[in-house]
Each structure stands twice: as C-alpha cells, then as structure tokens.
C-alpha cells in the first residue's frame, strides 16, 4: 500500500492549532505533504510550528470560519501559496457550554452551530469547486461520537455533530461523479483541551475523565495521533473507494 505517501499533495486543515489538527498536520507533513493551516484570529502558532516542523512546506493563516469572507479568503490563500488543494480536513469546531435544556443559552446554541455546521458547509462551498476543476480530491469532515448518540447538557454540540453526517453524505453524493470523495471521522473521547472543558462542565475534570474512561471498552481516552491516523488514511489514495462514510475512532465506545 503506497497511497499513504503524501509527497506532492497539499493539505488544508482548519482548527489546525488544536490537538487533533496539530497531530494531523505533523503526520501528513512527515509523509511529504504541504500543509496550509487555518485557525482563529489571534492564534499563537509557535507551538504548532515546533510540533509539526517542515517549515518550508507549512504555512498558516487566521480566519473566523463563521464569516464567509474569511472562509473564501483562506481558500484563496491556500491555492495561491501551494497552487492546489488535494485534501481538506474540515476540522474547526467548538464544544460550547455545558447547559441542560431548560437553562440553554440561545447565544451558546448559535455560536456552536455557526462554527461547527455553518463553518464546515462554507468550507465545502469554496474548496469543492477547486477539487472539481482538478477532477480529484478528498475531504474529511470532523464529526464525533456525539454525532451518533446523545449526551445530557450538550445539546448544541450533539446537534452540530449529527448535522455533519448529513452534510457529509449529501456532499459525497454531489461530488462522487466529479472525482472527489467526502467522508467524516467520529472520534470518541480524545485527550486534549476540548475533553478537559467538557469534563469540567460535567462535574470536574479528573472525576469525569476517570468515569468516562472506565465506560469505554478499551478503558482509556484516545490520542490525537490515533485520530490523525484515520484522517490520513481517508485522505490518501488507499481510501479510494471510501466515500460518504463515517468512521469511528472510539475504543469500541459505540459498538455496544
């Protein structure tokens, strides 16, 4: 299997400065990719650049993925910098606040929806035409096991990650005949800032971390690198017939 070499490929990653984004950028850059990384205005890229390396093949920009002008701009910048976009990891997302439905802050609902759904859809709106023109490309959208079930207190996040499955399936049907594949990944609990924030809202970081880990058949959280490995596979030529699917990386959490 030679397809997972990324030599000569350009990868666009949103939410790149987070744990999964950084791990994916490093893995793909190590395999030869050019990386164009996007994250929110005010991002400090120092740790990202140190972790990813390959400075000559890595570039960064800042964008608010809820603003159409910003989305259009980061796609133009990626195309200008590297000449093409072969793989798009549509990864930007936020968890929002932990709030049960009677206490739901509608501003929280709108904020999560705008980043996690609107931001993903607008990324597709501007990346897909470049891939269509090239007659090839692979998109990996970031969903979650939260897109496959429920969880008290996280209605906006759950709603948004369910939506990504529908977006992925629809985009795959539109794109397949044009040589472009669209899939999504559904990670379970992954070590990093986002899960720490969710655990905090549910009653305490360490207490909830331990309780959640105990409920996972593999008895642990996943690592960002384990998600990155799945993203790298789906973006590669080895996944040439994978289209319109969702793929869990969750330690058998959703197998029951």
TrEMBL record:
Keywords: Oxidoreductase. It holds the Pfam family adh_short_C2. InterPro entries: NAD(P)-bd_dom_sf, SDR_fam. GO terms for molecular function: oxidoreductase activity. It comes from the Bacteria. PANTHER family: DEHYDROGENASES, SHORT CHAIN (PTHR24321), ESTRADIOL 17-BETA-DEHYDROGENASE 8-RELATED (PTHR24321:SF8). Belongs to the short-chain dehydrogenases/reductases (SDR) family. This is SDR family oxidoreductase.
